[in-house]
């Protein structure tokens, strides 16, 4: 049921109306109570907060879904961000994470590996990664690669890409 409280963080979807951010996406899913969080009021966010700092009780256990489609790589203290996402999500809530993986030097502070996602969003930290895909911007046949947790496989999955590559993950707070 996507009729939930949703928080989106720093959204920009290329060809879509920049003023709408992800509102069009959430409308398609028939969500309610969509809010955004940003470090400044510049783009009209409802919650103003620097995710390098712990979040307030006002937004603790408030959201069923958090969409981060371009924030994590721009925030220096990734550990604090992960703790904030855990605090903001309700039990069973979903974190939809879209982050750079490769070939994007100069975009943000970090590029992430799938293993980072599996370890940082592990059961020890109160999460479970349900699905993780990587998608190179340029790939034959527009391929998406579904990856499994290296801990489960007993081996790392190494994929070489030659264009900007993104990680798409669906994560649950447990």
Structural class by SSE content = alpha/beta
Q: Separation of termini?
A: 18 Å
Tertiary shape: globular
**Largest sheet geometry:** 8 strands, mixed
The total of beta strands comes to 8
Helix-residue proportion: 10-25%
Number of helices: 4
Q: Could you name the ranges where pLDDT drops below 50 across 5 or more consecutive residues?
A: 1-6, 8-16
With strands numbered from the N-terminus, the spatial order across the biggest sheet is 3-2-1-4-5-8-6-7
3D architecture notes:
There is one protein chain. By secondary structure, the protein is α/β, with parallel strands linked by helices. Helix content is 16%, strand content 30%. It has 4 helices and 8 strands, in the order βαβββαβαββαβ. The chain has helices spanning 23-28, 78-88, 114-120, 150-153; strands at residues 6-9, 34-38, 47-48, 63-68, 89-102, 127-136, 145-146, 165-173. The chain has an 8-stranded mixed beta sheet with strand order 3-2-1-4-5-8-6-7. A hairpin with an 8-residue loop joins β6 and β7. The longest helix has 11 residues, at 78-88. The model is unreliable at 1-6 and 8-16 (pLDDT under 50).
